[in-house]
Design a protein that fits this description.
Strand order of the largest sheet: 5-4-13-15
Structural class: alpha/beta
Shape: elongated
Radius of gyration: 37 Å
RNA sequence: AGGACUAUAGCUCAGUUGGUUAGAGCGCUACCUUGACAUGGUAGAGGUCCCCAGUUCGAAUCUGGGUAGUCCUACCA
């Protein structure tokens, strides 16, 4: 074995082996456990957040697989309609091709080509992370099977009246030329202006003044509204104003939506270009004048001078024209929320179009009940509130998108504007008795990607067929996801699955935090602070990292800034840490918080942990290979240390199981780290040396220690495997035979379960004593500057029978671990030399000072100890002196305090005596 | 505007139903190449648990108020 752990050499080898051997597929068993992967975008690549999520799912999957569950981790990707279409459009653009020139069919072909080409990135990354996904069942939302499910769902919902077509205001992206859902619009505060315009009264006697942030929409105004109780304008209600620049008169209406305090208290109403105005327009039966085209340029409904102008050009023109007419009263600076498309980043226009909608209100009812009734639970529970808040105020879901890439809507139109929904044109003709004389054309639009994602848990298992997989693995066990898509995906999956399966999609939703960079910033391409998890595994040099972060940017002008910050943050690039270290880092960060700051320092610590594991195994193998390890059941004698480490192992098994059940991977990783490093390596391996290296130790003793070394190691390798799959497999292969275990892989070995009976309290207490004595001596050594190599003679005084027994049984351990020449037991009445002292309970550890210890240094050390004790004692005395504490606190708490006080007092006296003696020297 | 979450060591974070000497990792200081490991070992320093009030014998923990930060939802043209 190498002296240091080299992850690169083993990881891909083992993954290949596992995959080729079919270990990732369900293995049978009475109880099923399944997780459906949140499908990543097929043309994207995994970022740190994905890596985190996959690591958690893989730990759950490996854990349950080892527990003997029939385990399925369903893999797949989604087609990411808008994102993918944009990427391909940009590629074509670079070649000077417009997709409209290419035509729909050819364009979609290009997208499939791109999908084939780039789709491997994600799956490669997933494999590098060690994800034990069942690749044989890989699915894609545009697969024939899943597409069939999408069509089926659409048709059935339509027939049930839960999908309808309607003309509504939608969020229109004028660059992507599609409607998008409310969730895809991000509103952010931006600086803008509030323009005050005069609208002349129709009678010619004066004007009223409206305030607006979007002057261009005035071309579509069909009313001015005031508050019904606003005395300033009461006399104007029912009259008309003449709309400047347009040859129209519009009414002044009263509506209590108007806020009297804002602006002038008069609101121009543009029902076709504003959501609130739209509602008001409907209330008052106002005409709706659409003044924009698909590009958000002014259309032919507007006065001639403005036609064809872009909306922002039109704005400038209109303001200028009104000003020249003397109708501009003033312009104020104003901060407003500007809606932008989450993909395109352009300002979204409310726009009147025909779209398809899902009646979400109806579907939401059972979905709310499922969480209320506990059929689905969120972890952490607080997310249920978020879910409820959104679901109880849910809006109908606009599902049509004016794209070419996606599931085409199964609806056909005739020339008279009738439409028919069905599985094909033939089916529609048949059903509605439409002959060849009627020409039909299919709806041009496709469905929102989330529409197909919402079916993910059951469409991947073969629905609408009632497959065996559906029966076995649905509902799935748990959904692992980030809170950012609770609305987008989680809620919609619950609605759709309950409707079509009459069962929940999953029993638990584990909501994890979002991975951020070291400064707490969200990782994003445009900020240039993303880290590819693979770069943490394999490492990357500085120039490579910069190149990666600045490639293919939407805003190339940011490249310089990104290069600078990258150079500052990673002057040496990124080291290679290996998959196991990366995964363990993820687990250690997976607490209940919402933000996960990824600190590069942590991963280095866990890389070192891997190395520790590696070397611990080396030590064990060096001492056990070709040696008698008692694997045939020969007689063996266990030392105190053997019994203790076995006991600690059981406690660790219990801790890990509890942590995983509660989705506290941070606690699981901590328990493992603590046990492996601080107990097994720091103490147990050291305690094994006095036995193995003692020529006088019996065969049974050596055998007992070897047996314990190897079996405890073998057990914790299995315990650790779901978290660090590679190193555990590599080490287990050589360790297992020595422990009498066999099998082709650790991944299919049984997971260690805690045996309560194996917890050995006596051994725990004895080892605590042993540690106490050793640490006491080391402490004196350290603080007195006694060279570590210098062997000491130590005296033990004031001990009781138990101390004596412990000493007798453990003297060799003490001598080895504390580097002692000799230990002398001080009988009652025996005079002790002047010595530096440490206490373990009442037992005094004495390190004679002659020639070793500086008087002043020891006095200083003692006075520090004394001070600490005195401070503590004052606190306890105060507590016990308080009558109400003694009266009201539970008896055992009081007793505990009393005991503590006594012990502290005794210790204090001892140290003070000691101080006296030394001072008199 | 409404709501949620967070505040503990220099940094990143644990801290179960109130009773601990408030912990870990990283970083820091000193010493050490001892026969698994310098990606290591040993010892050590470092905290007004954001502030104020309350409940309680007792509060990092519970309640109320405040401050700071993050986020979500809805928005005033």
């Amino acid at each position: 074995m190498d002296k240091t752990f080299q992850p690169a050499t083993i990881e891909t080898r083992w993954y290949q082996e596992w995959e080729d051997s079919g270990y990732f597929a369900p293995q049978g068993g009475d109880r099923a456990y399944s997780i459906m992967i949140p499908p990543p975008n097929v043309t994207g690549s995994l970022h740190m957040g994905h890596g985190f999520q996959e690591a958690i799912m893989d730990a759950l999957i490996r854990y349950h697989r080892m527990l003997g569950y029939n385990t399925l981790w369903q893999v797949g990707t989604d087609h990411a309609g808008i994102a993918t279409q944009m990427v391909v459009e940009r590629q074509l653009e670079a070649e000077g091709i417009d997709r409209h020139d290419l035509g729909r069919e050819k364009f979609v072909e290009k997208v499939w080509e791109w999908k084939e080409q780039s789709g491997g990135t994600i799956t490669r990354q997933l494999r590098r992370l060690g994800s034990s996904l069942d690749w044989s069942r890989e699915r894609f939302t545009m697969d024939p099977g899943l597409s069939l499910a999408v069509q089926e769902v659409f048709i059935r919902l339509y027939r049930e009246g839960l999908i309808y077509r309607g003309q509504r205001l939608v969020n229109w992206d004028p660059v992507l030329h599609t409607a998008i859902s409310d969730l895809e619009v991000l509103s952010q505060e931006e600086k803008g202006h509030l323009w005050h315009f005069h609208y002349p009264l129709a009678g010619g006697e004066g004007h009223l003044t409206v305030a607006t942030t979007r002057p261009e929409t005035m071309l579509g105004d069909t009313a001015v509204a005031v508050h019904p109780e606003d005395e300033r304008y009461a006399h104007l209600i029912g009259r008309t104003v003449s709309l400047p620049l347009c040859d129209r008169e519009i009414p002044v209406i009263a509506d209590d939506y108007v806020d009297r305090e804002f602006g002038t208290g008069c609101v121009k109403i543009t029902p076709a270009h504003d959501f609130n105005d739209y509602e008001m327009g409907k209330r008052h039966g106002l005409p709706m004048i659409n003044i924009l085209d698909d590009n958000a340029a002014i259309n032919a409904n507007a006065p001639a001078p403005y036609r064809g102008l872009d909306r922002f050009e039109a704005r400038q023109r209109i303001v200028a024209d009104l000003e020249s007419m003397g109708l501009l009263e003033k312009v104020e600076d104003h901060t407003l929320k500007v809606p932008r498309g989450d993909r395109s980043g352009v300002v979204i226009e409310p726009y009147l179009t025909n779209q398809w909608y899902v009646d979400a209100r109806e579907l939401a009812k059972p979905a709310i009940a499922a969480v209320e009734d506990g059929d689905i639970r969120f972890v952490p529970k607080q997310w249920e509130n978020t879910y409820f808040a959104w679901m109880r105020d849910i809006q109908d879901w606009c599902i049509s998108r004016q794209l070419w890439w996606g599931h085409r809507i199964p609806a056909w139109y005739d020339d008279d504007g009738n439409f028919y929904v069905g599985e094909s044109e033939a089916a529609v003709r048949e059903e509605h008795g439409l002959g060849d004389e009627t020409s039909l054309r299919q709806d041009e639009d496709v469905l929102d990607t989330w529409f197909s994602s919402a079916l993910w848990t059951f469409s991947t298992l073969g629905w609408p067929e009632e497959t065996e997989e559906l029966a076995t693995f649905h509902p799935s066990s748990v959904l692992v996801t980030g809170f950012d898509i609770i609305f987008f995906w989680v809620a919609r999956m619950i609605m759709m699955t309950l409707h079509f399966r009459r069962e929940v999609p999953f029993h638990t939703v584990y909501v994890h935090g979002l991975v951020r960079d070291g400064e707490g910033q969200k990782m994003s391409k445009s900020k240039g602070n993303v880290i590819d998890p693979i770069d943490l595994i394999d490492g990357i040099d500085l120039e490579g990292l910069i190149a990666k972060r600045t490639a293919g940017m939407m805003q190339p002008q940011l490249a310089e800034k990104i290069e600078g910050s990258t150079r500052r943050q990673f002057p040496e690039g990124i080291n290679a840490y290996g998959t196991d270290a990366l995964r363990f880092t993820y687990y250690s960060l997976a607490s209940t918080g919402r933000d996960i700051k990824f600190d590069i320092g942590r991963i280095e610590g866990y890389r070192n942990f891997c190395n520790k594991i590696w070397n611990a195994a080396r030590y064990v193998l060096m001492n056990c290979e070709n040696e008698d390890c008692g694997s045939e059941g020969e007689a063996l004698q266990l030392s105190l240390a053997d019994r203790w480490i076995e006991s600690k192992l059981q406690e660790t098994c219990a801790d890990v199981a509890r942590a995983v059940e509660n989705y506290r991977f941070d606690l699981a990783s901590q328990a493992l780290y603590e046990f492996i490093w601080n107990e097994y390596c720091d103490w147990y391996l050291e305690l094994s040396k006095p036995v193995l290296w003692d020529e006088n130790a019996s065969v049974e003793e050596k055998r007992g220690t070897r047996r314990t070394l190897i079996t405890v190691l073998e057990t914790w390798l299995r315990l650790l495997h779901p978290f660090m799959p590679f190193i555990t497999e590599e080490v287990w292969q050589t360790v297992a035979p020595l422990a009498g275990k066999s099998g082709p892989t650790i991944m299919l070995q049984p997971y260690p379960l805690a045996r309560d009976k194996a917890v050995d309290n006596a051994a725990n207490a004895d080892i605590e004593w042993l540690k106490g004595v050793i640490v006491g001596i080391r402490n004196i050594r350290g603080e007195m500057g006694i060279p570590p190599g210098k062997k000491l003679t130590v005296l033990l005084g004031n001990g009781d029978a138990r101390d004596k027994m412990r000493l007798e049984q453990n003297a060799p351990f003490l001598e080895k671990l504390a580097k002692l020449a000799a230990i002398k037991w001080l009988g009652e009445g025996e005079e002790a030399p002047v010595a530096a002292t440490a206490l373990v309970g009442e037992l005094e550890i004495l390190v004679p000072m002659a020639g070793l210890i500086d008087k002043d240094a020891e006095l200083a050390r003692l006075s520090r100890e004394v001070e600490k004790l005195e401070k503590d004692l004052t606190r306890i005395r105060g507590k016990l002196g308080n009558a109400s504490f003694v009266d009201k606190a539970p008896a055992d708490v009081v007793a505990k305090e009393r005991e503590k006080m006594q012990a502290q007092q005794q210790a204090l006296e001892k140290l003070q005596e000691q101080e006296q003696r030394i001072r008199q020297l």
